[in-house]
Amino acid sequence: MKFGKAEREVDVKDTGKVVVAYDARSEWARRVAEGVLRELGLK
What we know:
By secondary structure, the chain is mostly helical.
């Protein structure tokens, strides 16, 4: 997984969009991690 790459590619004036995109991806990553833990029986 590549986190952080998109933010650097976005123009600085789009900072608001970057933050939203980062938050959304973080939420997605957290859900994926929880799903993986459930699959492994760790949660």
